[in-house]
């Protein structure tokens, strides 16, 4: 009886752990230089919190946007750093970019979200 209770308890603990295990947060540091981002691809899982540290190492202002996820980070002046977080609720490829006029074509990348 005692062994049976232990087995049931272990099975229950494993089930609870499996159900509540979300992916660990993803830490990403992006350096923005003049009209470029040094990270052009971020791989994340559905529901995974993506924590971004963005450093503007250039002289021009830069920001970070993902339209489909509603991410719109305020512009950073040269030398400034910002931290922000987001997650995606469904898989897909989401484009991120600097929204400063003239930067969109070169300062961009993809967030690839998988199950």
Sum up the structure in keywords:
115 residues; alpha/beta; four-stranded mixed beta sheet; three-stranded mixed beta sheet
Named CATH architecture: Sandwich
What general form does the structure show? elongated
The CATH superfamily is Cupredoxins -  blue copper proteins
Q: What is the beta-strand fraction?
A: over 45%
Question: What's the number of helices?
Answer: 1
Mean pLDDT, nearest integer?
89
Q: Ends: how far apart?
A: 40 Å
What's the helix-strand series?
HEEEEEEEEE
How many E strands?
9
Strand order of the largest sheet: 2-1-4-7
* The CATH topology: Immunoglobulin-like
Nearest-angstrom radius of gyration?
20 Å
Q: Would you state the CATH class?
A: Mainly Beta
Question: Residue share in helices?
Answer: 10-25%
Overall number of domains: 1
> Structural class of the helix and strand makeup?
alpha/beta
Largest sheet: 4 strands, mixed
Contiguous uncertain segments of 5+ residues: none
């Amino acid at each position: 009886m005692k062994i049976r209770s232990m087995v049931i308890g272990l099975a229950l603990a494993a089930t609870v752990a499996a159900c509540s295990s979300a992916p660990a947060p993803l830490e990403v540091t992006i350096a923005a230089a003049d009209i470029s981002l040094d990270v052009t691809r971020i791989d994340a899982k559905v529901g995974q919190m993506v924590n971004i540290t963005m450093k503007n190492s250039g002289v021009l202002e830069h920001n970070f946007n993902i339209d489909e996820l509603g991410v719109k980070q305020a512009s950073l002046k040269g030398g400034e750093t910002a931290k922000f977080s987001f997650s995606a609720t469904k898989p897909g490829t989401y484009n991120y970019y600097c929204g400063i006029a003239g930067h969109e074509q070169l300062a961009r990348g993809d967030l690839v979200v998988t199950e």
